[in-house]
Please model this.
Amino acid sequence: MNAAMTPRSHYGLEKHGILNAGAIYWNLPTPFLYEQAIRRREGRLSHLGPLVVRTGQHTGRAPKDKFIVLDEETKSQVWWGEINQEMEPARFQILKQRLLAYWQTKDLFVQDCLAGADPRYAMPIRVITETAWHSLFARNLFIQADHEQLMKHVPEFTLFHAPNFHAIPDMDGTRSEAFVVINFKEKLILIGGTHYGGEMKKSIFTVLNYLLPQRDVLTMHCSANKGKDDDVAIFFGLSGTGKTTLSTDRARTLIGDDEHGWSKEGIFNLEGGCYAKVIRLSPEAEPEIYETTRRFGTILENVGFNSVTGKVDLNEDLLTENTRAAYPMSHIPSAMRRGMGSHPRNIIMLTADAFGVMPPVAKLTPAQAVYYFLSGYTAKVAGTETGVTEPQATFSACFGAPFMVLSPSIYSSLLGERIAAHDVKVWMVNTGWSGGPYGVGQRISIGHTRAILKAALEGSLGEVPTREDSNFRLQVPEACPGVPSEILDPRSTWKDKHAYDEQAKKVAEMFVNNFKQFEEKTSPDIRNAGPRPD
Model:
C-alpha cells in the first residue's frame, strides 16, 4: 500500500522537529501494519490470525524509569516522589535532540488517534514509532479517528516511541537505559529503551490524569459495564484481582476494561481497545477474552508460541507471567462502540486478599468508599515475583498510583463528590483466598464471585441483613443467592480461629499504617472509616 494514499493531516512531522526521516507510513490500517511487522521480522503470524511479538527483557512496566519535566506549573501541581520523578528541562532537551538525530533516515509509523470517547473531553493525540507492531498497538488501544478527523488532525499531545533507542543514564539523568518522560509544557512524551506496549497506553493515561481533573473530570483506573436498563457499574482493582475478567460479562455491555473518566454528564472510556492479561486464560471462565486471542488484529505479547505449528500456548510462562493481548473493543461482542454511559449505580472495589481474612463481599459507607479507594489494597502471592515467598500486602493509592500525577486527595475528593451526588452504592469484593492464606486456603470460586456481583448489581444484595466485621468495620451480607453462607464469614472458614484473629489484626494494622500518609488531607469521618485493630 502506498503510504501517500492513507489519510493524513497537513500538520506534518516537521512540526515536531522530525527531519530527514526515511519512509513515513501514515495511519496504516491493520492488514498493512501486519505486512510491515512481518516483513521487518518484528512478529510472527500465528494460527487463526493474532500477531505474536516479543518485548525482550522488558516484559512489564518500568515505574522507576518514569519522569516528568519540571516547569513553573508542574513544580506546584505534581505529586512528586518515587512515582513521579522530576527531570530538568535541559536534560529533556538533550535526550530529545539525540532521539531526533537517531531517527534521521529511519522509517517511521504515525497513528493519529483520540483519547477519550466523550467528544466534549476527547484529546487528539499522535503516536510516532519506529516499529509497525507498536503502531498497530496504538491503533488498537486508542480511539480511531474517522477520515474527516484525520484530515484536520492537530495533536494536543504527541508520543515519540523509540524502543531501540537507549538513554545514557549519566548524561540523561535516568535510572537505566529505559525511560518514559512526559513534558506537559511541550505536550510531548518520550519513550525509549523498552518494547513493552503497556508503556504507551499508560503514558497517555498519565497525561489525562493530570489534565482532566482540572476540568472537573475524575480519571479512574477501572473497568466499566452496564446492564439492560442502563445501570452502569465501575470496577476498581489492581492486577490479579479480576477487573477485566469480571467486567467482561455476556449479560452486560462492556464500556471499557481499564481507563475511564467520570464527568458531570456521566462516564466515558478513555481508550478504544483492551490490554488484557492472558496467562492461563480459561475459555470457560473468560470466554469473550479467550476468543480475542484467536482473532486477526490481536497482538499477543510474550505468549507461548510454537514456531513449527504456529499455535500459541496461553499456559506458557517461560518469558513472563505478564503475558498480554492487545485488541480493539470490536473484538468483544458484548462491548459498545460509543464508549459512554450514565452515572454509575454501583462501584465495585476488587481486592485479591492473599492473607485470607477479608470477606468475599462487603457494603461500604461513602466515607469507607473514600478510605478504601485511597488505600487501593491487594496482595501479591508467593511465586509471582522474585523474592516473594509469602503473601505481601500492596497498597496503590486510587487503585493506580503509578499513573496518578496529582495528589491522591484530588481524585478521592472527586470520587466522594460523585458518590454523594448520585447516591452510588459501593461494594468491596474479595477475589482472593478463603479458609486460610495463600498456600493453605483456597481461592474464592469465580462462580461465587460472579453470583455476588449479580446480586449486587441487580439490587437484591442491598436488601439482605448485614453484620459488622469487627476487624475492618465492614457491613457483610449474611446471605447471597448462589453462595454458601459460611463463605461470607471468612473467620468461619478457618480451622484455626486464633490464627485467623492474629492474621486479621495484622492486615488491619497494615491499613492503618499505610493510611497515615493521607491523614492530613482527609476529613475526620474518612480517617475514622478504616479498620481499628484491637
About this structure: Residues 497-515 form the longest helix (19 residues). The domain at 345-527 is CATH 3.90.228.20 (Phosphoenolpyruvate Carboxykinase; domain 3). The mean pLDDT is 94. The longest strand covers residues 218-226.
